[in-house]
Design brief:
disordered C terminus; 4 helices; mainly beta
Amino acid sequence: MRKLMVGLTMVVGLLAVTPPAMAQGSIAAPGSLDPVGLITSGAVLPFLGQGSTGTALSFLELYAPVNATNVHMFLFDSTCVRGGPSINVPLTANDVALIRIDNIGSGAPTSGLVTAANSDAQGFTLLPWTGSDGAGPVAARTLWANSAGNFVRVIDPIALHSIDETFLSLTNTGGWNPMRTAAAFFAPLEAGGLHTTIYFVCPNTNIQRHLPAGGAFTEANGFPIIFPSLQVAGSTTPLRIRVYDDDENFLRDVTSSCNCLTIRPVTDIDAVYASAVEAPDGTYTEVEGSTQSAVPAVCSTTVVEPLTNPVAPNAGNVCPGAPLGCAFGGTPLCTGQFQQTTPAIPGGGPFSFVAYRAITVPGFDVFGRVPGMSVCHIRGDAFNSCTGTPNTGGR
C-alpha cells in the first residue's frame, strides 16, 4: 500500500508552502443517507485539478472495510465527455488507498467527474460493488488541495445506493445521518511534527431519549428516531478500536471512550501510532461504538437517609430500605433507606457516534469527517446479522 504514502507525501509537499484554511464536506440532512458511508452500487465523484503544471490537485481516498473489492473508474471532463484511460485500484479487506486523479495523462481530464464501481473482467463495463462476486462495499471521497488558495476541501461522493438502503428499511428509524455505530480512518506515522487527532461526537440521552421519549430532539416532536439508542446521560460511550498497518497486518485491539464531544490524539489511543517499527508507513483504524453490560447501582451499607414518603422508596434510589429486611408500606415497616452512592448503568449498545480527523504538520492542516458504517458491516457480517431485526446492529 505504498501508493498511499506517495499520495500523502505529494499533498504535504505542496501545502507546506503556506497554511491552508480548513474546509469540510456538506452536512447530511436529518433522515437522509450518509454521503460518506458505505456504497453498495457505484459513486460519482467530482474532482478539480490542474494536472502536472498547476497548484491544484485532486486525490481519491478509498476504503474497503468489509472485504476485498475492486474500484474501477472512468473519467469525464467538466462537460461529461469521457477521456483518457480507465483506472483500476484493487483493495484487500481493511485496505485504504490515496490516488491522485487529476494528472492521469494520455488525454485524461484534469477536472470533471469520476464514475467508480466494480467492473467486468475486461474492465470495459462497470458493475455494482455488491454483486454476485461479493466485491465491496466501499467508502470514497475527493480531497481537493490548492496551495494558491490555501485550502484542502473535502468533496463528498454522490452514492447511487448505500448499504443503509439495503439493510435499514425502517420507517422514521435510523435517521440522524451521519450517526453510525462504526467508523474507519487512516493516520500517517506520528513523527517529524506530523500529528493525527480524532474528534469524537457521542451524544447521550440529553439529546434524545427513548422510553419515555425526551431530550432536546425528542421523537414526540417529530424528530427522526436515532437507532440504536444513545448512551445514558452521565455515562461515557464505550469504544472498541482495532489498528492495522498499511499492509493490513493486525496491530492492536484496544478500548477507549467518548462523552458528547471528546478530542483524542491518536497517541492517546495507543502508542503504536508513533511506532516506526510496527507501522512505519501509517495505520488503518476501525472504531466501534461498543456494547456494555448493565451495572447495578452501588448502595451504602452504613449510611441511611430518611424517607420522603414513609411507605415508599425515595425518588431515584433503588437501594433497600433500612433496617435490612423491612418492607416499604409493609411489615416490618422501613424507617429509612440505604443511600445510593452510584446510580445504575443500564446495558446497551452498540452506540452511535460521529468521528472527524485532523492531520496536521507546521504549515499543513486537513480536517474532515471519517467514513461511518455499522458494527456488523465493519466486522464483515454485512449479509447476515444486518438483515435482521433492528436490535441486530443494522445501523
